[in-house]
Amino acid sequence: MLGDITAADDIFIVCGRTDMRKSIDGLCAMIQDQLHMDPRRSAIYLFCGKRCDRFKLLMWEKTGFLLLYKRMEAEGRFRWPRNQMEVKHLTWQQFDWLMSGLEIEQPKAFRIQENVDNVPVSEPL
């Protein structure tokens, strides 16, 4: 289905500032050359510009690339990690936090882990 981002296996946030004038080809080249990753894997790649009020999402679908662009109309900003040339793997929960204007690391949140008996146990992140 066109634009179904839930089909992606992984979410990667490209930290630092990205030139938001880059199109699909420019972002793919960045993924390949600088991050040494394959843009055609089943993953979402997130890029943010200098002002942190807009981002681009790049994803490979079976027949081609999907590029989504979001600009915040409110005065809020995305809490984008700024370590240049770094890429981080995100969970869907971290993606939701980021889209809600929160940091991707929430120290007071709980993460579900399994203990030895395979019983879910809540632990602080």
Report on this structure.
The protein is α+β, with helices and mostly antiparallel strands. The protein has one domain (5-103). Helices cover 14% and strands 33% of the residues. The strands form two sheets. It has a five-stranded mixed sheet with strand order 4-3-2-1-5. It has a two-stranded antiparallel ribbon with strand order 6-7. Strand 1, helix 1 and strand 2 (43-48) form a beta-alpha-beta unit. The mean pLDDT is 84.
Sequence-ordered SSE layout with sheet pairings:
Blueprint (H helix, E strand, L loop, with lengths): L9 E5 L9 H10 L9 E6 L5 E8 L2 E8 L15 E4 L1 H8 L10 E5 L5 E5 L1
Parallel strand pairs: 1-2
Antiparallel strand pairs: 1-5, 2-3, 3-4, 6-7
A few lines on this structure:
This protein is of the alpha+beta class and 125 residues long.
Sheet-strand content, in percent, reads 25-35%
Number of domains: 1
Q: Uncertain spans, ≥5 residues at pLDDT below 50? A: none
Query: What kind of assembly state do the chains in view correspond to?
Result: single chain
Number of helices: 2
Mean pLDDT: 84
Straight-line N-to-C gap: 34 Å
Tell me the strand order in the biggest sheet.
Answer: 4-3-2-1-5
What would you call the shape?
globular
Number of strands: 7
Major sheet: 5 strands, mixed
Find the structural class using helix and strand composition. Answer: alpha+beta
The helical percent reads: 10-25%
Order of helical and strand elements: EHEEEEHEE
Radius of gyration using CA atoms only: 16 Å
